[in-house]
Write a structure and sequence with these properties.
343 residues; alpha/beta
């Protein structure tokens, strides 16, 4: 493995924004991460342009927020640093069509996730730098924390250092979007890709969602009111995660009742069994050997037509907790502007 226990963490004093002086940065994509990177960079004094496909719904929005917008190919040709912030499954084709033909010696190709480089979907020429700055938060949080004078932790990796200044430039970029305020952890494309995919699948998304829904189902099948089940197994998850985020597992346990803490200790091992751990190891193995990447890219390809993806998405949307959740969330004192989707 290429993991390093002594990997360095960089902060503001380790980063020099002067490495971005005179450089044009093209942000390819203007979604969650794209808009956050672009706005933060601009407010840090960087020269930023946006690259989109013709007809993109984000084109007008980017212009309204003060950016010059070009096609991806035009932006790549004008830029010294090209940060690709579109969906993983679309990056390889966009790179081949619009970016690769416009690369010049000394350019920097940047990513916020190592997927396409690690799995060989994109193979850059030797005459460019290849780096990654990966924020450990959604784009809207990258933006809001920057605006609050703070930042979110980020990862930095250098895959290819043609100029000899790849790390310096990448760290300057991280500082410009707020990452160095929190800390920028040194890593590799391989480590970031494999750990990110595993975390998403086994814990953060796949694991947590399945656990909450299984708890909801268990209570409902036992005859309890679905609204009670939602509050206990879904709604309160945020309260627990917030405590862990603030003070770790010990801090969370300090904040809950003795009854809850006792139940935590005796029941956790009954849920996360040896079989669960074996399944996690298989998930990690499938990520490491490329099995998941091949399956994902095939399904998302024109040939695959997203058949499996769409079917799974439809089934997930039909889970009873979604209907109950929509009803309960109407009770909350949130404004519509705070919601990610309207339901």
């Amino acid at each position: 493995m290429d993991a390093k226990m002594d990997a360095k963490i960089y902060y503001q004093e380790d980063c020099n924004l002067a490495f971005l002086d005179g450089k044009t940065i093209a942000i390819i994509g203007y979604g969650s991460q794209g808009h956050a990177h672009a706005l933060n960079l601009k407010e840090s004094g960087c020269n930023v342009i946006i690259g989109l496909y013709k007809g993109s719904r984000s084109w007008k929005r980017a212009e309204e927020q003060g950016f010059e917008v070009f096609t991806a190919a035009e932006a790549a040709k004008k830029a010294d640093i090209i940060m690709i912030l579109i969906n993983d499954e679309k990056q390889a084709q966009l790179y081949k069509d619009d970016i690769e033909p416009n690369l010049e010696e000394g350019n920097m190709l940047m990513f916020a996730h190592g997927f396409n480089i690690h799995f060989g979907c994109i193979v850059p020429p030797e005459f460019v730098d290849v780096t990654m700055i990966a924020p450990k938060a959604p784009g809207h949080t990258v933006r809001s924390e920057y605006q609050a004078g703070k930042g979110v932790p980020m990862l930095v990796a250098v895959q290819q250092d043609h100029t000899g200044k790849a790390l310096d430039v990448a760290l300057a970029y991280a500082a410009a979007i707020g990452g160095a305020r929190a800390g920028v952890l040194e890593t590799t494309f391989r480590t970031e890709t494999e750990t990110d995919l595993f975390g998403e699948q086994a814990v953060l998304c796949g694991g947590v969602c399945a656990l909450m829904q299984a708890g909801f189902d268990t209570l409902v099948e036992a005859g309890y009111d679905p609204r009670n089940a939602y509050f206990e197994c879904v709604h309160e998850m945020k309260l627990i995660v917030d405590l862990i985020y603030q003070s770790g597992f010990a801090g969370m346990r300090y904040s809950i009742s003795n009854t809850a803490e006792y139940g935590d200790y005796v029941t956790g091992p009954k849920i996360i069994t040896d079989d669960t751990r074996k399944a996690m190891k298989k998930i990690l193995s499938d990520i490491q050997d490329g099995t998941f990447a091949k399956e994902f890219l095939l399904d998302m390809s024109p040939a695959g037509k997203q058949v499996h993806f769409r079917a799974m998405k439809r089934l997930a949307a039909e889970h009873p907790s979604e209907k109950i959740g929509a009803e309960i969330r109407k009770m909350y004192s949130w404004s519509d502007e705070d919601k990610l989707i309207n339901n």
